[in-house]
Amino acid sequence: MLRFPGLLRQGDRIGVTSPSAGVARREAARIDFCIGWLREAGFDVVVGECMDGTGITSGPAEARAAELTAMLCDPSIRCVIPPWGGETAIDLVDRLDWAALARADPTWLVGFSDLSTILVPITTRLGWATVHGDNLADTPYRTPEGLLGWLEIVSGTGPYLQRESGLVADWWPMAEDPRATMWKRAGEGRWSLHGADSVRVTGRLIGGCVETLCNLAGTPYGDVAAFGRRYADDGLIVYLEAAGDEAATICRNIHGLRLAGWFDHATVVLVGRTNAPDNPKLTQREAVLDALAPLDLPVIFDLEIGHVPPHLPLVNGALATVTVNAETRQIVQEFR
């Protein structure tokens, strides 16, 4: 049974912790600004102990798992968000206190990149809806027309309509402007449909960063095949985005997800825009199509999800309807 956390309201408490990479000294000004931005927006922000940025993670796996579990189980904390992603959050998935989490009321968990490693099992194992959206460092950036910020989504009842923004953006260097709130414009882009002239499909959302999720496939923490069977009447909308690995690696990773049954109940696959490099003999687009070729599924490329901003928040577990045709490119999410 899917459970959606309660609506986030002004005055509610938001927990900040680093399940993966912490905050180095040179990055602290940006994170301090983002915490202050949330407080000025009316939220009570508490910052955990696991924030150290001197190593590849913010602390030992046991400490990070304990702090994340505690925040998610604390009824006074209504939402948890990391400063950003990282590299090895996979080391804490089997250290979370899953029994305690199962007894707790659901709490919003928001983020992307390496946080996908935690978002997906929280949804597939616990049935909690989670948000693949801005990390804390990105939250103050102004949401472009057509999209919604994650704060809007977790603060309302929906349905939530988002359309392609047409914007391709980039981050401002933190050393240059740690208080940036406007994306650096990098160009324009549109969603691109492969495998059909038009689509209008519905399904439960699930997905995230390819490079992190491929390591969960075939484990109890990445059993999307079982999740798909559980919601077979709805079907799945699987979404993926490549952070930085070259195309041949992404191709292998998506093949692995396919072999693990991730697309068995999919109605469509959404693919985020990426700056990850091509292989000399294989583009990123070709990598996706090679891996998904046996499935005869429509694929929509270049959505605003992942490592090329701006960000289109997607709620794992939400029932979504995706429409792409000559006039319309949109996704509607519902909490039911």
Please provide a written account of the structure.
It is a single chain. The chain is of the alpha/beta class and 336 residues long. Helices cover 24% and strands 24% of the residues. It has helices at 28-40, 61-73, 98-103, 116-126, 150-154, 210-213, 224-230, 247-259, 284-292; strands at residues 13-16, 44-47, 77-81, 108-111, 130-132, 160-163, 167-170, 184-188, 192-194, 199-209, 236-241, 266-272, 299-303, 314-316, 319-324, 329-334. The protein has an 8-stranded mixed sheet with strand order 6-16-15-10-11-12-13-9. A 6-stranded mixed sheet has the order 2-1-3-4-5-14, sandwiched between helices. Helix 9 links the parallel strand 12 and strand 13. The longest helix is centred in the N-terminal third of the chain and has 13 residues, at 28-40. The radius of gyration is 18 Å and the shape is globular.
What is the SS-derived class?
Answer: alpha/beta
Q: Estimate the mean pLDDT confidence.
A: 97
Q: Gap between N and C termini, in Å?
A: 10 Å
Shape: globular
Which percent range fits the helix content? 10-25%
> pLDDT under 50 segments (min length 5)?
none
Number of continuous helical runs: 9
Main-sheet strand order equals 6-16-15-10-11-12-13-9
Major beta-sheet overview: 8 strands, mixed
| Beta strand % | 15-25%
Sketch the topology as an H/E string, one letter per element.
EHEHEHEHEHEEEEEHHEHEHEEEE
How large, in whole angstroms, is the Cα Rg?
A: 18 Å
Overall number of strands? 16
